[in-house]
Design brief:
By secondary structure, the protein is α+β, with helices and mostly antiparallel strands. The chain has helices at residues 18-23, 29-40, 80-92, 95-104, 109-144, 161-173, 177-180, 182-199, 213-221, 224-238, and strands spanning 11-13, 52-55, 59-68, 71-76, 149-150, 156-157. The strands form two sheets. Strands 1, 2, 3 and 4 form a four-stranded antiparallel sheet that branches. A hairpin with a 5-residue loop joins strand 5 (149-150) and strand 6. The protein is globular. The two termini are 23 Å apart.
Length: 260
Amino acid sequence: MAHIGLKPSLEVKLDFDINKSLRNISDSENKKRILQSYIDSNNFAEHYDYDLLLQTNNSLIAGFEYLFEGKKVMMQEINPVTIYYSNAVMSNYLIESYKNILLEKNMKGIISSHAFGNFFQLAFNCIINLQTCLETFLNNILNENEYKFYNKNNKKIRGSILEKIETALPEILNKTFKNDYEPQFIFIKNLISIRNEMIHLKPDKQETNSKYKVPYRKILDFQFDKTVEAVKTFINYHQKDLIEECNCGRDFHFDITGKE
């Protein structure tokens, strides 16, 4: 899979020439004072109760300012879902190659440690970014729809990621991923399970020198390519074409070792 196109968190497509439209609008004196105050100060647009939109050739996109050396730098706000997913794809690119090196070559000492690290560093990155991608996507939809979880005593609680997937999204969007894409749903459930195990990793309580062998074996068996595709299917099922390959024609990926 080629690298993923990063998309703004908000984009308003325009079917008219905005420059031509703005040409006929005159600013009031009050608006001019506010604009000059904004330019001269270190305050951001939200301090004036405004949002910042950046203009492209045919759209307006969400933006924000960052103070750098006393000056405001304008930045477009990229949808973090696309960033996390892109990170996962770039991590996944060489996972299989490093797994083969780890399993097939007879290595000793520090070389063996490097082979182990090369695989598991990218594996951890891929799994954690995929899960974070899912959670960010879910939280955005739930927040936009002001969805809340309650227990049987009508007390507000924090829903788990599976509750968000299996309960909240079907109620909000009137469709159920689990029913329409059952094989992909299984990959997502496995992703959530192994990510939770990694984040809350505890040494084996048994009397053994190998404290993490069980989760390491699970990660070696983990189906990265199919899970990456399952997450893409899940997101695009709920928000059409949010995850797409970049059309620049170039390929990017994370590498641990560089040139050998």
